[in-house]
Amino acid sequence: MNEPVVRDAPGRVNLIGEHTDYNDGFVLPIATPQRTTVTLTPRDDRRALVQSASMPEGERDAEFVVGEERRAGRWFDYVQGVTQAMRQRGWQLRGFHAFIETGVPLGSGLSSSASLEIAIVRALDAAFQLGIDPIEAAHIGHRAETDFVGAPVGIMDQMAASLATIDAALFLDTRSLAFERVPIPGTAELLVVDSGIVHSHAGGEYRVRRAECEEAARRLGVRALRDVAADDPRIDRLPDPLNRRTRHVVTENARVLLVRDAFLRRDAPAAGAAMNASHASMRDDFNVSTPEIDTLVRIAQSSADVFGARLTGGGFGGAIVALVRKGRARAEGDAVVRAYAAEVERRASVLIA
Question: pTM (2 decimals)?
Fold first, then answer.
């Protein structure tokens, strides 16, 4: 008898290390308390019936045939992408019924897509007793998003959804996939505020930024921008904007290492200063911020109880993350939301405090 299984996976907040993962660099995400849950029952045929509780009425139900996946331009492409990637990597599947619920807000920079992908992989793994390890799960989710959905992302989101916890940051080398868990200083806690601007990685400027990084690496004769030294004089000789894109990636990698070391030393002010510098780099060199995001960051940074704040996620909307004095995140979040409403005709919301 085909019994249902229930599996879940978290979203993620990237504390620092933005647009470094597809450049073979370093990242420092942490899992969110919000998770995506999949209740999955195997079938004896190849039909996949999927439902999402977070979709509007009339768009919640979808169906496809395992082994005949076709991109539809809808939310269930992430599910189809997973089944296709699993088959391509040699895992045997049948059909199933899956009911999906998520607390990870869509388009807020907390990687709802990777959360869904890893939750689906875990549910299929349990239902069909496959024995998939966490790094293989991340590879499956990454292939689903890049090859099937068509979003040119790095592997950070899937690795975070598969391996990160809510009580420690995940320091990850995206080239080797070596990782370690690094506790946040006991004097600090996290605040995440959604700007109210939904973003997407499936096309547009995100794709342009990745192409610019690849072109800069080609001109510099390196495998990836991770291999460029911070003092390489050739960076400034690259044409604009390739010089600025390269400078962001090189300095952002250094900032990830700085924050990792600051966390290990329990030095929240040093980590916060690096987060502030990261936002300036994303705004000025990588050009992925927005006026609304800059306003949120400025408001947060103006508080004496905030060590540092920055845009989190790929940019062009989404959320900010702040490192806040222990016990002050909720109050600071409420204050930021009020001040933002007074300046911007959008409504922000506290996602994590």
Answer: 0.94
